[in-house]
Design a protein that fits this description.
Order of helices and strands: HHHHHHHHHHHHHHH
Radius of gyration: 19 Å
Shape: globular
Largest sheet: none
Distance between the termini: 13 Å
Structural class: mainly alpha
Length: about 260
Amino acid sequence: MSSPALALPPLAQRWLRATPSLKSLALRSAYLRSELDRHEIEPIAVALDVLTGLAEQADIAARAVLASLIPTLADPDLADRVAALRRIAIERALLPLGRLVRAGPLALPAPAEIDERTLAASSTGRALTLGERRSLARRPSRAAFEKLLRDPHPMVIHNLLRNPRLTEDDVLRLAARRPAHPEVIVEILRHPEWSQRARVRMAIIQNPRCPLSIAVPLVRLLIRPELHQVVAAADVSPMVRAAAQELLERRPPVPERGDRGESQ
């Protein structure tokens, strides 16, 4: 399925044209972040409304743009912009946009609220400082991973996610950990590679303690079998299940020989 470019708002056309030309996921995320910063909120809202509506119909190009943009929308630094998008969606009845940002912006706890009493300790039993844990996360041995994966401090997780020894299974454990630390999930979403992994995305969405402002937008990126899995999950938030069910009902019918557009 391809987007009808002539019928799209200028900003939506721009994103659909420019985003695929950037081969690196990091470049795509950086480009879209700069677009959110430099344009007025009204045209951004209109573009996001149209792209979200297309993505809900399994449009491949629109889904690719949202896949790079949704992690940015979960960034706490953009909370004011997300709140403004939500207000515009309500005032102008932009329904697809409203479904994307219905949970509102993400609010993280202040650093002082993070309990660090159970974090990594040295061989003498002394609790490691934040600087020591950040340094360890850059070049950890596998033996250190167990403790570092439980560290809730975003700076430690930021370094750990960029460690070449980290595996997808390690990131899955971070995303699925109960109780979830919103700061950790945000760091996973900010990573240009891990945030694009389907298994990681599903682990985040199905974590019952994942903030709704993260889980609900991510539902827009799921393919049909994943949506059915979320709907059937007993421990997922009712709002997340409702978003998955709603999206299933909006998806076009599956062709008799299989829905090739949703196999990826």
